[in-house]
UniProtKB/TrEMBL annotation, chain A:
Keywords: Heme, Iron, Metal-binding, Signal
Span of domain Cytochrome c: 28-109
Keyword field contains Iron: yes
UniProt GO molecular function: electron transfer activity; heme binding; metal ion binding
Name recorded for this polypeptide: Cytochrome c domain-containing protein
Signal peptide segment: 1-25
The organism's place on the tree of life at top rank: Bacteria
Database matches in InterPro entries: Cyt_c-like_dom, Cyt_c-like_dom_sf
UniProtKB/TrEMBL annotation, chain B:
Signal sequence range: 1-20
Keywords from the named record: Signal
InterPro entries named among the record's database cross-references: Cyt_cd1_C_sf, Haem_d1_sf, Host-pathogen_enzymatic-act
PANTHER family tied to this protein: DIHYDRO-HEME D1 DEHYDROGENASE, PROTEIN NIRF
Gene3D superfamilies: C-terminal (heme d1) domain of cytochrome cd1-nitrite reductase
Species in which this protein is naturally found: Zoogloea ramigera
Gene it is expressed from: nirF
Alphabetized Pfam families for the sequence: Cytochrom_D1
Keyword DNA-binding attached: no
Protein name: Protein NirF
Lineage: Bacteria, Pseudomonadati, Pseudomonadota, Betaproteobacteria, Rhodocyclales
């Protein structure tokens, strides 16, 4: 009895731990989110504009990105687009973080604070 | 002691003399003035470099990421070009906005004509240039960068040269255009093929040569404006030697005083190098290895040093190259995310903006000691009125 209860609890705990870690992978920690917002507005901003309304690179505003599949945008951010001025950013972020950026870009990107 | 009442009565007399005259304590020249762009806040600080201080803040200039400034020849007005297409004429003496218009959807800069009467803006969206009356900012004419039917290009590297001409490059079109505004309402334009994806341009201090840096190929396109009919030629072709390019996380800027000691000093693209070419034969004479992808490569006004800042992720560093020894003699970090540098006109000090450290540092160029630090909100460009007296600024 006790045993099976313990196993139950352990399994449940394990499952919640797993759930937490997967949502963490999709959702960077708050401090990291701040860094990513700063990077997008300032460093991506040097080509896409600080307000992401475009520059040498195209605008990254929700209405422009709406029809693009997320994974293709993530691939563009991670690997860049050879032959264009868009560099790959894999040295500075992982795919989950690029995915978080793409989701935010499609919603309207957070402001710097 | 006896001076005191004398001064007091003088002040009183002047006050009585009426409000029409400027109070004498407010009289000043403009030769030592400048502006610092506070990027995110959409503000500029008006600064002076005689004693290195900030005089005033002027808000309300819109999106100033990638802002550029050109000056009236009397040094009184700063024309600030904002990313959002705003063109703001700031009165540096009255310390307020004199006029402001939105002239385009997406702009990266502009320049003033030889006679000081025209302000020409270069735009990404809609791609092209526009000429304005320098007093009123009235639109006089525009030249769309339509390089093929229905195809418009982003305009980069706009520079003013003699004869009311403006020279610029077209990123998508791969061309250099020269537009003559002798009749400001009816400009005439000549086109020259240049090379793949010119990303910025500069004109030599005498206004003779226009250089366009190419992103899409190794090399720099050169147009001799004394003999433009000969067309643009390529210099430093193949400087990458066929090696794999390093990623470029920020485009270099050519606009600077990069002619020093008879040599042109230029950022390589995708290589952590500064390229050096003889300014007469345009042959490569050296290359100097540096810490990252160079962004600004700027010669001190006397040409003895060249200062270099870098693209992300090496943007906290600044390196100084000795132009005789052609090697790096000093490496330091004035703060985080160094975006711009501006020399005082005689070159004894240089101002550096550190966006992420929220300050501008003033550094002695002989000793490299920091002389002053001025707080600023995410500063980017620094521009001094001495630019107003130079060709190509």
């Amino acid at each position: 009895m006790d045993r099976s209860l313990l196993i139950h609890v352990a399994v449940l705990l394990g499952l919640t731990a797993l759930a937490v870690s997967t949502t963490q992978a999709a959702e960077p920690a708050p401090a990291r989110q701040k860094e990513l917002v700063h990077m997008v507005r300032q460093d991506c901003g040097s080509c896409h504009g600080m307000r992401l309304a475009g520059g040498l690179g195209p605008a990254l505003l929700p209405e422009r990105l709406a029809d693009w599949p997320d994974d293709s945008l993530v691939a563009t951010i991670i690997h860049g687009r050879p032959g264009t001025a868009m560099p790959g950013w894999q040295r500075f972020m992982n795919e989950a973080e690029a995915g978080w950026i793409v989701a935010r870009l499609k919603q309207g990107f957070p402001e710097l604070d | 002691m006896r001076l005191r009442p004398a001064i007091a009565s003088l002040v009183a007399a002047l006050a009585l003399a009426g409000c029409a005259t400027t109070p004498p304590e407010a009289l000043r020249g403009t030769g030592d003035l400048g502006v610092v762009i506070e990027r995110a806040a959409g503000r500029v600080q008006i600064v002076e470099h005689s004693t290195n201080s900030s005089l005033a803040t002027v808000p309300g200039l819109g999106d100033l990421s990638h802002a550029h400034v050109t000056f009236s020849r009397d040094g009184r007005f700063a024309y600030v070009f904002g990313r959002d297409g705003g063109l703001t004429k700031v009165d540096l003496l009255a310390r307020r906005i004199d006029k402001r218009i939105i002239q385009a959807g997406n702009s990266i800069g502009g320049s003033i004509s030889q006679d000081g009467r025209l302000i020409v803006a270069q735009n990404y969206e809609p791609g092209g240039i526009k000429a304005f009356d320098a007093d009123t900012l009235e639109l006089l004419s525009e030249v769309p960068a339509e390089y093929a039917p229905g195809k418009f290009s982003k305009v980069v590297g706009l520079a003013d040269v003699s004869g009311q001409r403006f020279v610029y490059a077209l990123f998508e079109a791969g061309e250099i255009w020269v537009t003559d505004f002798t009749n400001p309402r009816r400009p005439t334009t000549t086109r020259y093929p240049a090379g793949k994806q010119p990303y910025d341009g500069l004109v030599t201090p005498d206004g003779r040569y226009f250089l366009a840096g190419l992103f899409g190929e190794d090399g720099i396109s050169l147009l001799d404006l004394w003999q433009p009919e000969r067309g643009a030629t390529k210099i430093l072709a193949g400087y990458g030697r066929g090696e794999q390019k390093l990623p470029v996380f920020k485009m270099p800027h050519l606009r600077g005083w990069s002619l020093a000691g008879g040599q042109a000093w230029l950022p390589a693209i995708g290589r952590h190098e500064v390229l050096v070419a003889d300014a007469r034969s345009w042959q490569e004479t050296a290359r100097v290895a540096v810490k990252g992808q160079p962004v600004f490569v700027m010669a001190r006004p006397d040409g003895r040093q060249v200062w270099v800042n870098f693209a992300f992720p090496d943007n906290e560093w600044v390196q100084v190259i000795d132009t005789v020894e052609k090697r790096v003699v000093h490496t330091f970090s004035p703060g985080k995310a160094v975006l711009h540098m501006e020399f005082e006109p005689r070159g004894e000090e240089v101002w550096l903006s550190s966006r992420d450290s929220n300050r501008v540092s003033v550094v002695n160029t002989a000793t490299f000691a920091t002389r002053s630090e001025l707080p600023a909100d995410a500063p980017s460009g620094i521009f001094f009125t001495a630019r107003g007296q130079r060709i190509g600024f």
